[in-house]
Design brief:
Helix 5 runs antiparallel to helix 10, helix 5 runs parallel beside helix 12 and helix 10 packs antiparallel against helix 12. The chain is mainly alpha-helical. It has a domain of 213 residues: MetI-like (MetI-like fold, Orthogonal Bundle), CATH 1.10.3720.
Length: 314
């Protein structure tokens, strides 16, 4: 395992360097200027605007800008926001709790829905329950989050008036936060549960046809013991790796949902920073998600090999 982890870490570092180079290059070539609003002020002398650009390194070539950013990031300094002058790390950390609350709640809800529904659908294949569950899983997986979000706003906020459609960070108390979190959590949970249900069902269908499951039934074991102790235990092994891999991906998927419900989280910060071409903040968010993806991929590979003894690290 030690050699495997060292090899994976080296490959991951090379991957992260490539990702950072590509993302930084895209931001460098993208149109726009972080000082556009400042430059539009005619009261600011042109000499001062040029001096600020030189101090911020905006006049440096791409290689110099990337080298400065990479060097500072390796030292733990995420940079300073071009538009506000604040620390990029503080902006990301201040938005993180809200995103984790919404995304964490949605992912937990999707697991609670997907695992039992997928198992029951596989056990009762082609039954009415399987047909209904498969249909809803397909809809949840296929419909984009902006559509389901706008649909829920139209029904529960505009027509019925039950839930607020704009997230207010100033709301205090459990009930107030719970009410304004219901719709965004539900939107993300439906999308996540749709894909996870398909994985669980497919994995269960593959396992319940195995010889050891038929042997367990032939021994006279109760059906629920066969399903839970023998079939589901092995069928959920690949699902565990999928869950681990998709955790950081959900953070990126929350961008659209946060825009719909005006949630002051990582997603809205990313969209705002891209519009302002605030490179340090955009890199802090995107590269942070890339790091999480790489880390959870390593964790998923290790978990899969630990849970399934047939998998060898060599």
């Amino acid at each position: 395992m030690g050699r495997y982890l060292i090899r994976r870490i080296i490959i991951s570092l090379i991957t992260l360097i490539a990702i950072s180079f590509v993302v930084f290059g895209i931001l460098y070539m993208a149109p726009g200027d972080p000082l556009a609003g400042f430059a539009a002020n005619q009261n600011v002398p042109a000499e001062l605007r040029q001096q600020l650009r030189e101090q911020m390194g905006l006049e440096d070539p791409f290689a110099t800008q990337y080298r400065k950013w990479a060097t500072q990031y390796a030292k733990g300094n995420w940079g300073v926001s071009y538009t506000t002058g604040g620390d990029a790390r503080s902006y990301v950390v201040s938005r993180l709790p809200v995103t984790l609350q919404i995304v964490g709640g949605a992912y937990l809800l999707s697991l609670i829905i997907a695992v039992p529904v997928g198992i029951i659908s596989a056990v009762r294949q082609y039954s009415w329950f399987d047909n209904v569950a498969t249909t809803f899983a397909f809809l949840g997986f296929s419909l984009p989050t902006f559509f389901t979000g706008l649909l829920m706003i139209s029904i529960f906020s505009v027509w019925l008036g039950w839930l607020p459609f704009v997230y207010d960070s100033q709301v205090s108390g459990f009930w107030g936060n719970f009410k304004q979190s219901i719709m965004p959590i539900t939107v993300l949970a439906l999308s996540g549960a749709g894909s996870l249900t398909r994985y669980v069902r497919a994995s269960m269908l593959e396992v319940i046809s195995q010889d050891y499951v038929r042997t367990a039934r032939a021994k006279g074991l109760k059906n629920w013991i066969v399903v839970i102790a023998h079939a589901a235990r092995n069928a959920l092994i690949p699902v565990v790796t999928i869950v681990a891999v998709e955790i950081p991906v959900v953070l990126g998927g929350a961008v659209i949902t946060e825009q719909i419900f005006r949630i002051p989280g990582i997603g809205s910060l990313l969209v705002q920073s891209i519009g302002e071409k605030d490179v340090p903040v955009v890199m802090a968010v995107t590269f942070g998600i890339a790091v999480l993806v790489v880390i959870f991929n390593i964790i998923a590979d290790v978990l899969y090999a630990i849970l399934d003894p047939r998998i060898k690290f060599s």
